[in-house]
């Protein structure tokens, strides 16, 4: 081989082995997709669109929400896990739901929540509350637990379906209190709430946007918040930790932005800075709050810790209750 060609080959090999700094510095050079594994109009979609609008302006490229519903959001998650780790495909992830799916499917999902994604930030939490039909003769958590212990399997609780957050919240509550209720799954939160109001079921662990109008109308009774701190939209509602000694009881939907594992550090750093700035905007906080979502701005380390905690908690709940995959 001529000397000049050998040098050229060595230069090309060296260039191929070097980190792609230019790509990271020029990021993004095309639109970014923020995948939502659910149909438009739901809470996950709403959070994603709020972030996308402001993030696009900060990145200098459009951030397009890509709705990919199906398989309880797992189709969207799988598509991001398998995408190129170049910062142009991100996931708007309901961490609680995905952790529950991981536990229910016992490692059979086509992605690994902890292994296949790198946290960018968490944007908000959607709290739940324990509510009852007004006919239930219990106005406090202590009275409710006493009633359940005196009459096991007498009261029924509704959920949005087997393996839903409403279902597993109730399972966790029963495990922590040593009580039993009968599970009545529905095809969605709306019909579950309708039958609770009608008295066909007596108990529901419901998200705050569903609780507020019905509690105000007196068609349901709010008993306790399922979070470690009181819910801002329901400041007079005590937590299960306050009233029943269930320290650390925390069930709420956590919404986080994730990138595929392997995304270059400079791109992650840029995304983390810009998403943090978006979550600090007063208008974003206001719009989240209007939907009953508590704005947060957890960084990557806190988000990773919460993902690990969620995976551990729901794995224990599912195993202890021997809940089958939906």
Integer average pLDDT: 92
Total of helices: 13
Radius of gyration equals 23 Å
CATH superfamily placement of the largest domain: Bordetella uptake gene, domain 1
Which fold name corresponds to the CATH topology of the largest domain?
D-Maltodextrin-Binding Protein, domain 2
CATH top level class name of the largest domain: Alpha Beta
Largest sheet: 10 strands, mixed
Query: From the 3D coordinates, which CATH architecture of the largest domain would you assign?
Result: 3-Layer(aba) Sandwich
Which spans of ≥5 residues are poorly predicted at pLDDT below 50? 1-22
Assembly type of the chains comes to single chain
Write the H/E string, N to C.
HHEHEHEHEHEHEHEHEHEHHEH
Structural category is alpha/beta
Percentage of residues assigned to helices: 40-55%
Strand percent estimate: 15-25%
| C-alpha geometry | globular
- Amino-to-carboxy terminus distance: 64 Å
Number of strands: 10
Count of individual domains: 2
Q: How does this structure look, described?
A:
- The chain has 326 residues and is an alpha/beta fold.
- It folds into two domains: 17-125 and 253-321, D-Maltodextrin-Binding Protein, domain 2; 127-244, D-Maltodextrin-Binding Protein, domain 2, CATH 3.40.190.
- Helices cover 46% and strands 20% of the residues.
- The protein has helices spanning 3-17, 21-25, 43-59, 74-81, 95-104, 141-150, 165-177, 189-198, 208-217, 240-244, 265-279, 282-290, 300-321, and strands at 32-36, 63-67, 89-94, 117-132, 156-159, 182-185, 203-207, 221-225, 252-260, 294-298.
- Strands 1, 2, 3, 4, 5, 6, 7, 8, 9 and 10 form a ten-stranded mixed sheet that branches.
- β5 (156-159), α7 (165-177) and β6 form a beta-alpha-beta unit.
- α3 packs across α11 (265-279), α5 runs parallel beside α13 and α7 (165-177) packs across α13.
- It is globular, with a radius of gyration of 23 Å.
- The model is unreliable at 1-22 (pLDDT under 50).
């Amino acid at each position: 081989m001529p000397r000049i060609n050998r040098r050229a080959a060595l230069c090309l090999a060296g260039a191929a082995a070097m980190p792609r700094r230019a790509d990271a510095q020029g990021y993004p050079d095309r639109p970014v997709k923020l995948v939502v594994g659910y149909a438009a109009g739901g809470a996950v979609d709403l959070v994603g669109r709020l972030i996308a609008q402001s993030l696009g302006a900060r990145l200098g490229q459009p951030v397009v929400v890509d709705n990919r519903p199906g398989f309880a959001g797992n189709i969207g998650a799988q598509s991001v896990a398998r995408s190129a780790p170049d910062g142009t495909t991100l996931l708007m992830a309901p961490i609680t739901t995905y952790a529950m799916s991981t536990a229910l499917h016992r490692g059979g999902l086509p992605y690994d929540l902890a292994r296949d994604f790198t946290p960018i930030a968490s944007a908000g939490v959607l709290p739940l509350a324990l509510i009852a039909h007004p006919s239930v003769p219990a106005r406090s958590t202590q009275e409710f637990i006493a009633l359940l212990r005196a009459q096991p399997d007498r009261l029924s609780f509704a959920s949005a379906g087997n393996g839903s957050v409403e279902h597993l919240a109730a399972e966790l509550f029963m495990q922590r209190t040593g009580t039993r209720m009968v599970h009545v799954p529905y095809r969605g939160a709306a019909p579950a709430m309708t039958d609770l109001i009608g008295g066909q079921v007596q108990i529901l662990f419901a998200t705050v946007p569903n609780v507020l109008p019905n509690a105000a109308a007196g068609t349901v009774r709010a008993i306790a918040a399922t979070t470690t701190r009181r819910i801002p939209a329901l400041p007079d509602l005590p937590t299960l930790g306050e009233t029943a000694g269930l320290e650390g009881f925390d069930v709420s939907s956590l919404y986080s932005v994730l990138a595929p594992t392997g995304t270059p550090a400079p791109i992650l750093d840029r995304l983390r800075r810009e998403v943090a700035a978006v979550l600090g905007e007063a208008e974003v906080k206001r719009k989240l709050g209007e939907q009953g979502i508590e704005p947060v701005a957890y960084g990557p380390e806190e988000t990773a810790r919460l993902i690990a905690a969620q995976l551990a908690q729901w794995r224990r709940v599912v195993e202890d209750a021997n809940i089958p995959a939906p």
